[in-house]
Amino acid sequence: MKNLFLTTILAAITAFTAVAQDVTGKWKTIDDETGEAKSIVEIYKENGKMYGKVVEILNPDKKDATCVDCPGADKGKPILGLVIIKGLEKDGDEYNDGKILDPNSGKLYKCYIELENDNKLKVRGYIGFSLLGRTQYWYRQE
């Protein structure tokens, strides 16, 4: 009976931890230069890979902005609704092997994301290898 109780408690803790450490959900992005909140990006899973879409633009003056310099099919699309994180795959505690689009510059970077804690997401875009890039921290929205 004691072993059954301990096994049940351990299983419940494991399940809770797995749910608590999920990167899916809505995240507030912060401007590197001004420190102001820019947008809300929803990270979701599709066909076993992770994607991120802009679901809200926080600056009222930029709500109708389009991705002027974006490559390919994203060129000229509204930033609101634009998928900016594409094809990340889980690798241990992080998600990598995907791309992130900077809608302001239109540049596409390699990307990885990793939870710092349940409410803070490390997002790193880079060229070549991860030392040549920049990191942002996004914050979970309720």
User: What global shape is seen?
Assistant: globular
Residue fraction in strands? over 45%
Query: Helix proportion of residues, in percent?
Result: 10-25%
Low-pLDDT stretches are 4-19
Radius of gyration: 17 Å
Pfam families: DUF2147
Keywords: Signal
Domain DUF2147: 25-140
Signal peptide: 1-20
Note down, in words, how this protein is organized.
There is one protein chain. This protein is mainly β. The protein has a single domain, classed as Lipocalin (Beta Barrel). The protein has one helix and eight strands, in the order H-E-E-E-E-E-E-E-E. An eight-stranded antiparallel barrel has the order 1-2-3-4-5-6-7-8. A hairpin with a 2-residue loop joins strand 2 (37-46) and strand 3 (49-57). The radius of gyration is 17 Å and the shape is globular. It starts with a helix and ends with a strand. Residues 25-140 form the DUF2147 domain. Residues 1-20 form the signal peptide. Keywords: Signal.
Identify the notable features of this structure and list them briefly:
1 helix; mainly beta; 8 strands; Lipocalin; globular; eight-stranded antiparallel barrel
